[in-house]
Amino acid sequence: MGRSLVGLLILVASGLLLSCQTRRDAPAGDGPPFSVVEATIPEMGAAMEQGRITSREIVLQYLTRIALYEDKLNAVITVNPKALQQAEALDRERAQGKTRGPLHGIPIALKDNIHTTDMPTTGGALAFDGLVPPYEATVTKNLRQAGAVIIAKTSMTELANWVAGAPTPMPGNYSALAGYGMNPYDPRRDPREATFDGRPALSTAGSSSGIGTAANFWAANAGTETSGSILSPANQNMLAAIKPTVGRVSRYGIVPITADQDTAGPMAKSVTDAAILLGALEGAAPDPNDPATTTCSRPPGGDYTRYLNVDGLKGARIGVPRAFYYDPVTPPGAKEPRGGLNPPQKQVMAEAIAILKQQGAVIVDPADLPSILSQDRQNNFLLWDICSGADDAKGKDGDCSVVLKYGMKRDFNRWLATLGPAAPLKSLTQLRAFNVAHKTAGAIKYGQSRLDISDEMDVEADRVRYEADRAKDLALASTRGIDAALQAHDLDALLFPGSSGAAIAARPGYPTVIVPFGFVPNEPTPPFPDGFNAKPAPYGVSFTGSACSEPRLIELAYAFEQATKRRVPPPAAP
Q: In the prediction, which pLDDT does 208 show?
């Protein structure tokens, strides 16, 4: 059995017994029993208000599903042993006429790089096994104040996928502590000889697990993104998600990669649920522990559901960035074209564009990004990657941005210092040494090339290079990238296929809302062996805008979602 699963089974069994005992004298409810499967947050809230179900019973249903399907999916790194107690306390508040808001009594999971003081926060790293931080993340406090039950910590790619890049990159949702997370849309192992190490045949993508939300282990979850780690798993697990503007949601108490691009954000089964969760994550006021939280204005009452407008696409101007994101392009000096969609992906996006037009949107096609088309090698975004592996060590990193590897050295060491005596390590250097010393225990199955290239950075001596690269990131991604396209065509948003726009939007910290939409074949290179019938992969549609444009993006995404309603529950956890 997986981590803590025996204890979970005992918890569920005792909870079922108590539930039977406490419900014997309860009046019979009208209608069929309430099920959490595919239930929305508003539906659960209404059922609790009507007395059809309690938060405790909702938590118990979710715990039962975890106990039944966790061995197959490995979505959980820790279950909160106090989840039922927390639900009972919230039930008592409701009975006394106090309701904190739409998340009152709703079970939410957190990525395991977000601090909690009633469960460990490990980042999936062996070095942090059992670490209980001395303080909670601001987003954790905000969720508790909003009435959420923190039911579990999700599996994740170790340290948000800043451990191992080239030459042996770490697969998505693998960590030394939890192993591999499996995609509920095809939870089988990859059978190909070169990748026959336990990883999933259908990638879960990104470092924020969407597995448990997709499989109805909880109502929704909070992920984190530096470059794609909310949007990519949302795309692969058929979820709606909001990657917020960097600074809208506090980063305090979250294991970092770099403050330049890190943000937490909601992953859910619907835009409505994601909008509700975003309001709670943002909280009632800026966080004094994170000055960036003054970047964007909050909506009145912190209520993003006011932007759930079914007619939101009427008259909206939406751009299609054809070059690279839809059609292949050849950057200056390159011999082969890059990017583009395969035929099934093209078909999905053509249908999405047709629906947008039917709903009254004005489609500007093409609305290409100048930095993608630039014939100047120094000003072409496709030739300016992130330094992220052994080939990008010092002396070999002239054509890539050092922002992430520099930021990891700066911000990870700062984070360790906030742990005080609880910190098992005092520096990134000590983490690397621990990993080497514990290699046979599985600490670095795929190496630690990203940690290595980060630790060789000198925070003071390399500051000028970092600042220059940060300025170039912003120039290519925003000034001559997203902002240039938005302004040239007077656009409300850009329409990206799947999560393909995540990397360029991540550099300036711009927001995106992704909506579940279709399926495409899972046809990797090299191909699966004959006889392996790969299940199709989910494929979403993304709306990206400039800083602080979440309200408009939510409006567009919700209208598209309501016009399509294409989310299909996974078959792996019925």
A: 87
CA distance 84 to 61: 11
CB 293 within 8 A of CB 180: no
Within a 10 A sphere around the Cβ of 334, how many other Cβ atoms? 13
Domain hosting 113: range is 5-301
Is 291 within a domain? yes
Active site annotation includes 141 = no
Q: Which H or E run contains 520?
A: strand 512-520
549 within some domain = no
- The answer to whether residue 229 is catalytic is yes
Report pLDDT for 5. 55
**Residue 118 forms part of a structural domain:** yes
Q: What DSSP designation does 127 have?
A: G
Q: DSSP letter string over 365-427?
A: S----HHHH-SSGGG-GGG-EE--SGGGSTTS-TTEE-HHHHHHHHHHHHHHHHTGGG-S-SS
Give the tens place of pLDDT for each residue, 359-399.
999 999 999 999 999 999 999 999 999 999 999 999 999 99
Whether residue 119 is contained in a domain is answered as yes
3-state secondary structure of 150: strand
> How many domains is the chain built from?
1
pLDDT band at 28 (very low <50, low <70, confident <90, very high): very low
Q: Could you tell me the pTM of the whole model?
A: 0.96
Out of 4, 55, 111, 232, the active site residue is 111
Is residue 111 part of the annotated active site? The answer reads yes
In sequence order, which residues have a C-beta less than 8 Å from that of residue 385 and are 6 or more positions away? Answer: 399, 400, 401
291, with CB counted inside 10 A (0-12, 13-18, 19+), is exposed
CATH of the domain at 30: 3.90.1300.10
Q: How far apart are CA 168 and CA 162, in angstroms?
A: 13
Helix residue ranges, H only, 74-136: 83-95
pLDDT for residue 10: 52
State the average pLDDT for the chain.
95
In the chain, the percentage of residues whose pLDDT exceeds 90 is 93
Catalytic residue among 55, 155, 175, 203: 203
Residue of 229, 371, 401, 546 marked active site:
229
Residue 322 in this model has a pLDDT that exceeds 60: yes
For 519-536, what is the mean pLDDT?
Answer: 97
